[in-house]
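ok trying again, last paste got cut off:
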Amino acid sequence: MSYLDKILLLIYVLTTLPLAILLIYKVYRLNQLQPKFNSVKKSLDDMDEQAKLIVRTDMELNKIQEALDKKITGLYALQRLSRIISMTLEEDQIFKRIQAEYLEDLGLEKGCGFLWDERNKQFALRFSIGYRDDEIMAIKSFVNNSQEKFLDFIINDKTLSSVPGANDLISAQQLNTVFKVISFIISPLLPQQNNRGLIFVGTENPETVITEGDEELIKILATQLGQALENARLFEKTWRAQQELEKKVTERTHELTLALEEVKKISARKTNFVSSVSHELRTPLTSIKGYAAILLTGKLGELPKDVRERLEKINRHSDELVHMVNELLDISRIESGKVTMRTEICNLKEIVDKVEDLLSGQLKERKLSLTTGITQDANLVLADRTQIERVFINLISNAMRFTPAQGKITVTSRKVDKMIEVGVRDTGCGIPEEAQEAIFEEFFRVDNAINQEVRGTGLGLTLVKHIVEAHNGKIWVKSKIGSGSTFSFTLPAAE
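nice, full thing came through this time. structure:
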């Protein structure tokens, strides 16, 4: 080996030695860093998995959020649509208010509805959205050709949809083809009284997925539609019944009006007849009474006792007939409006005291007491004094006739609003309930033992009623057999 070779070898050794040392050091350091590298690599792998999990979770959350947003939008749309259809009670208007905008909010663009026509035995189209005329005619034909299947699903309250496993009656593919959609829901309408129908909604958008939540929304819509239809039909039924009732009431009112006019004519003829007859009776009665009075004076010669007694009876009965004729004439005049009540401020206590003084002899003879309970605040009335005196005379005289000895008659008054209510109460035999409304009719007399003994014309209470009503008042009676009677009437209070 030459000197040069040795030098080169030395140089090579000197050059490679540091490299070898460096390499050994690097290997040494690498061995030291390998656990850290493995740890870092593992951390990165874990972070990658976590990132993938976060991305997947985010995607799922986005899907959930989209589904939730869709459901909220659908619920808002359903709420608006429900409010709109519930605001009408016309069946046609209910379906007209189902517009495309509400379906769009539900993520759908096609829809139609059918109701079963029992008379024609077929489904009748009530609304359609998103279809041409030829398409809807084909759908209508298909529905009626398959009506048994559709009626079956309506009766069983089933729902047909493109959700897997939700349709076992009609092929989903067939429905997609006929209704021109990719996804759909068909829900039954079940209003009461056997009115059946169905509502169809669908979409031809492949990105729109029909879910069970969508089914629930459409079922709710179908239920509300069914209720709206039922309300509309009940309203129509009620309205028709009301119209029929109003028609009958109008007809009956017309009949009653004609009958009332006829009654008024008859009443007027009766009044005129009574008035005429009464006037005609006065002349012969006056003659009879006059001749009887002349004979009783003895100017035509002395009369045998039995003849005088008979003439006295003729004279007494003539007075009774004159009294009856006068009462009939008074009733006729008041009924015909020929008698005008000359109203003035009257003191009831003074009137009653005057009547008591007038009847005091009869009261004493019958051993009856008359008590006046006219209060200061219910004493002054607007009335015709003479006519009101006649009212008290008739009522108190009646009470005297039917009240046994030691009995009591009480006259009271009280103010009721702008009227004075007067009561004439006795402790007599009382009036049967069935006769209490009829006693104010002309010539009516209660059928009892006392009336068979006590004479009367049956005109006194009729006259009283006409006088009170001519004062814009009213009269009534409350009575109980064995417990006496109370005749009450009202008169306008004086301010």
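cool. DSSP finds 13 helices and twelve strands in the chain. The chain has a mean pLDDT of 79.
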